[in-house]
């Protein structure tokens, strides 16, 4: 939904204890977090549990009534922009993924690249490498900033499939070789960042890394991901990042995420001593402790 401010205005409120966002159209019914194959009643099997849930909702509603303002969070959206067209937003996110991959391989020379697509509000890239920490993400972001500030040219090159194969073998990138083998066309497109790094990509791309605003990009998290989504394959390190047109949009995005986290019923329930979710809940479903 495009607006003059290139943002989506969301009114954040509660619907029966769950986070809900009103996008200025009739609100859909709140969806509970009931696992597939389980009825809602299986989560509330006795009067004590039902009373605990009701107390949680009443406490949240009370807090909202005591607040004289209608809390609103401005969430920028990559579907609308004052300056960038939709395909330019896609280009920016793909460029960020490439810059991130270049930064990772500069800091971790033995890492192997796989795929790095754009997604809603950002990008990710999967790497075959050792486990990463939050400190590593900060190092990678710092290296990304240096690459961006150098304003390196981004060059497009078309080569034959055989030539691309020879280049990939020369730098020992087995995942890229597997990707190349799945491409039917004989003409392969390669994008270079300066003369230091390149990747298979259909493009298009920006003219230089300086197109990206370092203050409008941030690395969010790292997670495990199987190659090709197959649990029989090797576990990779997936780095998620978010990219925006301006620093203000980036801040609004994180503000929205923090607000959603703060209003999460699972967190509120524990803060109010209504229930406790232990680590073993990840292994044994429905093992939460509910307090009378």
From TrEMBL:
An annotated Gene Ontology molecular function: ATP binding
All copies of domain Threonyl/alanyl tRNA synthetase SAD, residue ranges: 188-240
Pfam families: tRNA_SAD
UniProt KW Metal-binding keyword: yes
InterPro entries named in the record: Thr/Ala-tRNA-synth_IIc_edit, tRNA_SAD
The entry's keywords: Aminoacyl-tRNA synthetase, ATP-binding, Ligase, Metal-binding, Nucleotide-binding, Protein biosynthesis, Zinc
GO annotations of cellular component type: chloroplast stroma
Protein name: Threonyl/alanyl tRNA synthetase SAD domain-containing protein
Organism: Platanthera zijinensis
High-level lineage: Eukaryota, Viridiplantae, Streptophyta, Embryophyta, Tracheophyta
């Amino acid at each position: 939904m495009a607006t003059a401010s290139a943002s989506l205005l969301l009114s954040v409120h509660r619907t029966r204890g769950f986070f809900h966002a009103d996008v200025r159209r009739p609100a859909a019914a709140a969806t509970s977090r009931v696992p597939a194959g389980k009825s809602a009643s299986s989560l509330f099997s006795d009067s004590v549990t039902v009373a605990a849930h009701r107390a949680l909702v009443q406490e949240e509603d009370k807090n909202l009534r005591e607040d004289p303002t209608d809390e609103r969070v401005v969430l920028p959206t990559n579907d609308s922009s004052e300056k960038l067209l939709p395909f330019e937003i896609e280009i920016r996110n793909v460029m960020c993924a490439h810059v991130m991959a270049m930064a990772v391989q500069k800091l971790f020379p033995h890492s192997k690249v796989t795929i790095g697509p754009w997604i809603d509000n950002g990008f990710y890239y999967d790497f075959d490498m050792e486990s990463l920490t939050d400190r590593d993400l900060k190092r990678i972001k710092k290296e990304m900033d240096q690459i961006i500030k150098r304003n390196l040219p981004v060059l497009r090159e078309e080569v034959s499939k055989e030539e691309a194969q020879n280049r990939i073998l020369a730098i020992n990138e087995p995942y890229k070789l597997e990707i190349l083998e799945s491409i039917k066309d004989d003409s392969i497109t390669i994008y270079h960042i300066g003369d230091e790094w390149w990747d298979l990509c259909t493009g298009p791309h920006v003219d230089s890394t300086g197109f990206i605003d370092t203050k409008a990009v941030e690395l969010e998290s790292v997670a495990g991901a199987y190659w090709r989504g197959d649990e029989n394959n090797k576990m990779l390190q997936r780095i998620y990042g978010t990219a925006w047109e301006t620093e203000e949009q980036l801040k609004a995005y994180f503000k929205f995420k923090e607000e959603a986290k703060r209003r999460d019923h699972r967190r509120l329930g524990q803060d109010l001593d209504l229930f406790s979710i232990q680590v073993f809940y990840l292994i044994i479903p429905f093992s939460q402790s509910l307090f009378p």
